[in-house]
Design goal:
Layout (H helix, E strand, L loop, with lengths): L5 E2 L5 H13 L3 E6 L4 E4 L1 H7 L3 H4 L4 H4 L1 E2 L12 H8 L3 E9 L5 E13 L2 E11 L7 H28 L5 H12 L6 E7 L5 E8 L2 E2 L8 E3 L9 H6 L5 E3 L1 H4 L6 H13 L3 E8 L4 E9 L8 H38 L10 E7 L10 E7 L5 E8 L4 H20 L4 H15 L5 E9 L6 E8 L5 E3 L11 E2 L4 E2 L13 E5 L4 E5 L11 H15 L4 H10 L9 E7 L4
Length: about 575
């Protein structure tokens, strides 16, 4: 057995004192070594075993100063398994090497080393070792101490892994799915997870065993009886905020005194439980549920130390679940807000309009992309597509500010799109906290029976795509309208913003979109634009609503951005 990586992230002073106390009081020798192999610190037991003062070893190369082969000979650095720990970030161990003591003796040692990880990067290693010669303790006792220490290190590594995995999701069900495989079989043979709903009910959301979610035990999942406050049941008490509880055969054999206690007793009996631990899922706000960990081997009951470990895991999982719930509440509010802000399209005279919005696949699932269309007093139709930096509720609120400014400015004055965008840039800087945004403002002009033209001005936004007449299978005339390009909003203003102008042939389609439709991190933007051009040209044979749906379905699988698109089709002759 060997210890896993030690993840250090800094922490409260109490944690620092605990680590210092453990480091100084361990029965095994401990060396802390940096990524280049230099000794940073040694505990008192290491000083005693090596016959060297910690201050004298500090800064020395651990391999050159200490590490020797079984016969005391120097080990080439290229063959040093200990140094490879820092290089490759993987634990290692040995039981036939020697360390050179201060008086020149070769001390037979059993050692294990684990990488020290900070912010995902290996910055050094921790080396644990014990005297195998029995000079100060029997070999079996010293080896047992190292085994115990390594077992503790593995458990600490498990806590670190659970924390890392749970922090990667903001979905309650996914958090539960990730938790189970980390606990079974490392800490338990079976695990059940119960959650309190916002309405106060209790649901058993997962039953996991050696094969993951056990279909034979699906009947135990679902709503549970209410947790009666007068019950002596460990599960009921924990759900009401009590401390973790350890159950042996005697405790599990007690007659149930409430419906929920009866369900739990039957569940433990079906599993053949010989030992169980019930710990709360806690957060700073509330107790969100409970974990029941079960073992079925009589010779392996849960210990008090394992109960404390499970309690720590329960707290970390509870925080993750509470965060996921808070996120869900924010997402629901933000989604409703965004749907309200993305207004219905006008019934434009002689034009077909369609639009779509898809939130980002990760994050808060709302963002700053938006579209808008409205009729102006002179009969022309204003089209807007834009992107405010961000993918959260703040971005959605900023998007709402900018959308309202655009509407007010465009309605107030009969000016070119470029003039409106320039005034918008000034207003955005003076009246809002929006740092930067891109957008296109376009006017589709002309009588209902044609001909039509579009005038537009772009503030750092992807260019509009003009597509050939409906029904054409050739993409030879499909092209991006590169004119009218100005700088991004918030970058200092552009008094010479250009306005582009283009005739819209009968049956043609104009597509405005945000960069989430064509951009994938690490991929070439030009390739994404070309792919959209070919795809959209082929899809113009479909009705406009269907056209938009099919375009949205073609978003690259690696896209991490939210996406908005707005399409306008001129009727055919």
């Amino acid at each position: 057995m060997t210890c896993g990586p030690v993840h250090h992230s800094g922490g409260p002073e109490g944690v620092a004192r605990l680590l210092t106390s453990a480091f100084e009081g361990l029965a095994a020798g401990v060396l802390l070594v940096d990524a280049r192999g230099r000794i940073l610190a040694a505990n008192p037991r290491a000083e005693q075993l090596l016959g060297r003062r910690a201050a004298a070893m500090a800064g020395a190369d651990a391999h050159d100063l200490l590490h020797r082969g079984p016969d005391g000979a120097v080990i080439p650095r290229s063959q040093c398994v200990l140094l490879a720990v820092a290089e490759h970030g993987r634990p290692a161990w040995g039981d036939s090497d020697t360390f050179l003591t201060g008086d020149g003796r070769a001390l037979p040692v059993r050692w294990s080393a684990a990488p020290v990880v900070q912010a995902g990067r290996t910055t050094g290693l921790a080396v644990l070792f014990a005297d195998m010669a029995g000079s100060s303790a029997p070999v079996g006792r010293e080896a047992a101490r190292v085994d115990l220490l390594e077992d503790l290190a593995e458990q600490l590594t498990l806590v670190s892994a659970i924390t890392e995995v749970l922090s990667e999701t903001l979905d309650v069900e996914e958090a539960v799915d990730r938790l189970g495989p980390l606990l079974v079989p490392k800490l338990a043979d079976w695990v059940a997870v119960d959650l309190r709903t916002p309405e106060g009910e209790v649901r058993r959301v997962a039953v996991l065993g050696p094969q993951g979610r056990d279909t034979a035990l699906e009947a135990w999942r679902g709503p549970l009886p209410p947790p009666t406050t007068l019950s002596r049941s460990a599960l009921v008490r924990v759900l009401h905020g009590a401390q973790p509880v350890l159950l042996g055969p005697h405790e599990m054999a007690e007659p149930p005194d409430a419906p929920l206690a009866a369900v739990q007793a039957g569940f433990l009996r079906v599993l053949g439980a010989t030992s169980a631990a019930v710990v709360p899922l806690t957060s700073a706000r509330e107790t969100t549920g409970a974990i029941t960990a079960v073992r079925t081997r009589p010779d392996r009951p849960f210990t008090d130390r394992e109960l404390a470990l499970l309690a720590d895991i329960g707290h970390r999982a509870g925080v993750a679940i509470d965060n996921a719930r808070l996120f869900g509440e924010q997402r629901d509010v933000a989604t409703a807000m965004q749907r309200h802000l993305l207004t219905e399209l006008p019934q434009s005279r002689g034009l077909q309009l369609a639009a779509r919005y898809r939130p980002a696949p990760a994050g808060s699932r709302v963002g700053g992309d938006w579209y808008d269309a409205f009729e102006l007093g002179d009969g022309s139709t204003a089209l807007v597509i834009g992107d405010v930096i961000g993918h959260d509720l703040q971005a959605a609120a900023r998007m709402a500010q900018l959308r309202n400014l655009v509407r007010a400015l465009a309605w107030d004055r009969h000016e070119t799109p470029a003039a409106i965008v320039e005034r918008l840039d000034d207003a955005m800087t003076s009246l809002t906290d929006i740092p930067m945004a891109t957008m296109i403002l376009a006017y589709v002009e002309g009588p209902p029976d044609g001909p039509r033209q579009v005038r537009w001005s772009s503030a750092g936004h992807p260019p509009p795509l003009l597509l050939p007449s409906t029904g054409s299978r050739s993409d030879g005339r499909a092209r991006y309208l590169e004119a009218g390009q100005g700088i991004i909003l918030g970058a200092g203003g552009d008094p010479e913003r250009p306005t582009g102008r283009q005739q819209l042939p009968a049956g043609s389609t104009l597509l405005l979109f945000t960069d989430g439709l064509v951009e994938v991190p690490g991929a070439d933007l030009g390739a994404g634009l070309e792919e959209l051009r070919r795809l959209a040209a082929d899809l113009t044979r479909y009705p406009l609503e269907d056209f938009c749906d099919r375009i949205l379905e073609a978003i690259p699988s690696g896209s991490t951005d939210d996406t908005a698109l707005l399409a306008v089709r001129v009727p055919p002759d």
